[in-house]
Every structure is written in structure tokens, then in C-alpha cells.
Automatic annotation (TrEMBL):
One term of GO molecular function: glutaminyl-tRNA synthase (glutamine-hydrolyzing) activity
Signal peptide segment: none
Entry annotated with the keyword Protein transport: no
The family this protein is said to belong to: Belongs to the GatB/GatE family. GatB subfamily.
Annotated InterPro entries: Asn/Gln-tRNA_amidoTrfase_suB/E, Asn/Gln-tRNA_Trfase_suB/E_cat, Asn/Gln_amidotransferase, Asn/Gln_tRNA_amidoTrase-B-like, GatB, GatB_C_1, GatB_Yqey_C_2, Gln-tRNA_amidoTrfase_suB_CS
Lineage: Bacteria, Pseudomonadati, Pseudomonadota, Alphaproteobacteria, Sphingomonadales
UniProt subunit comment: Heterotrimer of A, B and C subunits.
This protein's name: Aspartyl/glutamyl-tRNA(Asn/Gln) amidotransferase subunit B
Coiled-coil boundaries: none
Catalytic reactions on record: L-aspartyl-tRNA(Asn) + L-glutamine + ATP + H2O = L-asparaginyl-tRNA(Asn) + L-glutamate + ADP + phosphate + 2 H(+); L-glutamyl-tRNA(Gln) + L-glutamine + ATP + H2O = L-glutaminyl-tRNA(Gln) + L-glutamate + ADP + phosphate + H(+)
Residue intervals of the Asn/Gln amidotransferase domain: 342-489
Statement: the UniProt record of this protein carries the keyword Ribonucleoprotein: no
């Protein structure tokens, strides 16, 4: 199945889905875009509001340099055009949670121009080959406040804590053709933002949310009329919106109706979108340059500092892991979240061998953390202690079986692997005399099985290995056991 083979089956044949996403990402900073007010999540209503945010008369906005820097760094991370000259515009509309009566945004001259994000192949999800998805622009704008309808029986309350919070609006091109591609795009974009440090990506807290544009067409036809579903706050919901909205549009068109360009809301409880308002054209917002703000002019030194501050990004890290022999699956898992990638890099820096380390982290460590309900930043085992455990296995001091028991003790106590092995006497023995003595006892006690083995029943070899390891309490070197058993059984 090729990337564009996702189709909606209708009464009149197959329909193709065309998807574009506008992702609003809250910029990681300790102040708002044009004021010094705090931005902490979960604060009491109206406790993080400056006179600028409340639009008191005579208050003038002053751009927050760090917000501009973070947006530029994000643009550089997706190899986008950085515009050295950009300008703020006023988007005029009147709503109770918008105290100024306008939003300061960037329509005509955004800070960041065209870039691209590559999503990896994922056969299971129906993405058979890597896909490049275009990004049209990233512009900086201020958020609105929030209306609270559940605080009073007859009135709505207004919380202005979010008023003036700095957002990057990252606008994709309509390049996605399936829910899976859109989901992969949001996950990849979130990973990039978190690596760069420009947004924490906490969708459940609203610091990253997507407006989902969907239209349908017969394959190869012109684009259809699109709808926009606002403020979708999880990857799963983004995919559900696309699937449900595409089906709704196909059924509407096939029953003789017309898709209206409108803004819709997603109801996760009912799994459907509903109409919110007809979509206004841009001129209804009466955009014009903000008279209180000068254009932004970026110099080369500022741009150089932004570029030099970028970390190794997911694609480069993944390529490095693949070059070290790590499997594509493990490389994807290890680079998906920035904390996991940093933990793994520290493990490699501590001397762990890449392939063995990747296998251990993705299976043993992630499995244990999952059982404990903890994430890697909260791991009771440090990368240094993990490297110690892996080196004890690699040099034959302990077996893989004993390593699992040692790891469990490390999770419980936080102690180092070498300390546990020494304290509990878990070192693997290669003492051939001791192993040979146990083998002799086992062969004597199982003369019938020895005869069967020598008569050609080679599968019994595993039985003898198991019995020997059991007698040695798992501390015998498996390689030595195999060699000595082969010799003893002739």
C-alpha cells in the first residue's frame, strides 16, 4: 500500500483525503510575548495578568527576545527559511476573552518561511516509505484568554492567564493523505520542538494543539472545500477527526449536499465533529500592521547564536544510531522522546556497547519502567549503573539470567550492579572442576537419558544444560557448561 492509497469507500467509489494542520505550540519561556507576566500552567485564574495583557489604556507591547529566539531556532530545526525582516499585524475580532479586541499575529510577513518535516516509514501504520511534508510558515502570535462556562449558573467567567501567552503557529502544506501520516507528522513535530526546547509538547495541558483542515476529492481531482476543526489536543484525536470528518464529507457530497467552509469542534465523547461557525475570510479580520510595534530585524550574529545553540536533532541522532548497528525499530523508539535519547547517549558515554545497550533499554528497562508507571527521567537505575550491568554481562562476570535478577535488585535499591553482584555472591563461575563434578552427578542420576542422547536424541542436550545450571544455581558460565557437557556426553 503506497502512502496515498488511504481511501474512503463511498457509494460512488473511492475518495482521497487531503489534510493540512495548523499546530499552535506554546513557546517555552518564563514570560509572555509582549509582557513580563508569568505563564505557569494551572495557576489560579487571573493571577498571571499584567496591565498589558488586560489591555489597560496606554499600555504598549514590548517583544520578548527569548520568544523570537525560540521561534527562529524551531525554524532552523526544520531547515526553513528565516526571514531577517518580519512584522506584526493586528487581527481584529471581538470576543469576551480577547481584552484588546484584536490579536497580535503575523499574516503578511512571518518570522519563518518554508521548511519541511520528514516522517519515517511505518509499515504497520500504512506509511511504507519516508514522506516529506512541507511547512508553509511559522509565525509568532499571542494567545487569547479562556471563557469558563461551568462556574456560575447564568454567567460565564473570564480567565486571562493565557492572554498574551506566546505561541508559534506552525502551518503545514496540504501534503498529508491519511490519518496515519497526520499522526506521524504531529509526533515528529512534537519531538523536534522538545529536542530544541522551544515547546514542552504537553498536549494535555494545551501547550500544543492542532487545528485540523480536512477536505475530500476523487483521486486526481481539484482540492475540495475544507473544514477546520479547532483545538484538537492529542495525536489520537487528530487522527479520529480526520477519519470522521472525511467520512462525513463523503456522505454529505454523495447525498447531494455541499461541504461548507466552516470551523468545527471535535467532541471526543461522541467521536464526532460539529459545526461551530462559518469560516470567515481573512479580510473580515481587517488585518493591518500593528502601529505599536516596529518590524523585527534580525542580524547575522543573532542568527548564528540561534544556529549554534541547536542540539543534535532526531533525524541526525537516528542516523548515528543506525550507523552504530542499532536496528531501525530501536533507533525509532530511542529517538522518539528527547529524555530517552539523552539517557541512552549517557549510557553510551559510560562505555556501553550500542547494539546490546539498545536491545536492553528498549526491552528490559522500558518494560520495567512501564510496569512501575514511571518514565525514563524518573528511572531508579542511572545510565552509569546500567553501563556497569551491561559490562558485567559482556565480560562474562554474570550470565544473562543473573543479569535479570541483578537488574530487579537495582530497581528496588538503586544500588550499582557490581556492588549487588559482589554482595550477593552472584559472580559466574568458570571453575571447570566444580562444573565437571556437577555434570558427573547429573549424568549418573540420568543414565537412561544419557543413553537416549547417545542414541541420537540430541534435543536432550538442553535438559542436561538446564540441570547443570540449576545445580550451579545459575552461576556457571553457559559457554563452559556447553563445552564440558559435549565432552562428557561424548
Amino acid at each position: 500500500m503506497s502512502v496515498s492509497d488511504y481511501r474512503i469507500k463511498g457509494e460512488t467509489g473511492e475518495w482521497e483525503v487531503v489534510i493540512g494542520l495548523e499546530v499552535h505550540a506554546q513557546i517555552t519561556t518564563n514570560a509572555k510575548l509582549f509582557s513580563g507576566a508569568a505563564t505557569a500552567f494551572g495557576a489560579e485564574p487571573n493571577t498571571q495578568v499584567s496591565l498589558v495583557d488586560a489591555a489597560m489604556p496606554g499600555m504598549l507591547p514590548v517583544p520578548n527576545r527569548e520568544c523570537i529566539r525560540q521561534a527562529v531556532r524551531t525554524g532552523m530545526a526544520i531547515e526553513a527559511q528565516i526571514n531577517k525582516w518580519s512584522r506584526f499585524d493586528r487581527k481584529n475580532y471581538f470576543y469576551a476573552d480577547l481584552p484588546q479586541g484584536y490579536q497580535i499575529s503575523q499574516l503578511y510577513h512571518p518570522l519563518v518561511g518554508e521548511g519541511a518535516i520528514t516522517v519515517e516509514a511505518d509499515e504497520k501504520a500504512g506509511i511504507p516509505a519516508p514522506k516529506v511534508i512541507g511547512v508553509e510558515r511559522i509565525h509568532v502570535e499571542q494567545d487569547a484568554g479562556k471563557l469558563m462556562h461551568d462556574q456560575h449558573p447564568t454567567m460565564s467567567y473570564v480567565d486571562l492567564n493565557r492572554s498574551g501567552v506566546a505561541l508559534m503557529e506552525i502551518v503545514s502544506k496540504p501534503d498529508m493523505r491519511s490519518p496515519a501520516e497526520a499522526g506521524a507528522y504531529v509526533r515528529k513535530l512534537r519531538a523536534i520542538l522538545r529536542y530544541v526546547g522551544s515547546c514542552d509538547g504537553n498536549m494535555e495541558e494545551g501547550s500544543m494543539r492542532a487545528d485540523v483542515n480536512v477536505s475530500v476529492r476523487k483521486p486526481g481531482d481539484e482540492f475540495g472545500t475544507r473544514t477546520e476543526t479547532k483545538n484538537v489536543n492529542s495525536v489520537r484525536f487528530v487522527m479520529a477527526v480526520i477519519e470522521g470528518e472525511a467520512k462525513r464529507q463523503v456522505e454529505l457530497i454523495e447525498s447531494g449536499g455541499t461541504v461548507v467552509q466552516e470551523t468545527r469542534l471535535y467532541d471526543p465523547d461522541r467521536g464526532e465533529t460539529r459545526s461551530m461557525r462559518s469560516k470567515e475570510d481573512a479580510h473580515d479580520y481587517r488585518y493591518f500592521p500593528d502601529p505599536d510595534l516596529l518590524p523585527l530585524e534580525l542580524d547575522d550574529a543573532f542568527l548564528a547564536e540561534c544556529r549554534d545553540s541547536l542540539p543534535e536533532l532526531p533525524d541526525a541522532k537516528r542516523a548515528r544510531y543506525l550507523a552504530a548497528g542499532i536496528s531501525a525499530y530501536n533507533a525509532d523508539v530511542l529517538t522518539a522522546e528527547v529524555e530517552a535519547a539523552r539517557w541512552f547517549d549517557t549510557l553510551l558515554d559510560a562505555g556501553a556497547k550500542p547494539v546490546a545497550a539498545a536491545n536492553w533499554v528498549t526491552s528490559e528497562l522500558f518494560g520495567a519502567l512501564n510496569r512501575m508507571g514511571r518514565d525514563i527521567s524518573d528511572s531508579p537505575v542511572s545510565p552509569e549503573h546500567a553501563a556497569e550491568l551491561l559490562s558485567l554481562v559482556a565480560d562474562g562476570t554474570i550470565s544473562g539470567t543473573i543479569a535479570k535478577a541483578v537488574f530487579e535488585k537495582m530497581l528496588e535499591s538503586g544500588d550499582g550492579a557490581a556492588e549487588i553482584v559482589e554482595r550477593d555472591g552472584l559472580k559466574q563461575t568458570s571453575d571447570t572442576g566444580a562444573i565437571e563434578a556437577e555434570i558427573a552427578k547429573i549424568l549418573a542420576a540420568n543414565a537412561d537419558k544419557v543413553e537416549q542422547y547417545r542414541g541420537g536424541k540430541e534435543a536432550l542436550f538442553g535438559f542436561f544444560v538446564g540441570q547443570t545450571m540449576k545445580a550451579m544455581q545459575g552461576k556457571a558460565n553457559p559457554q563452559v557448561v556447553n563445552e564440558l557437557l559435549k565432552k562428557a556426553l561424548g
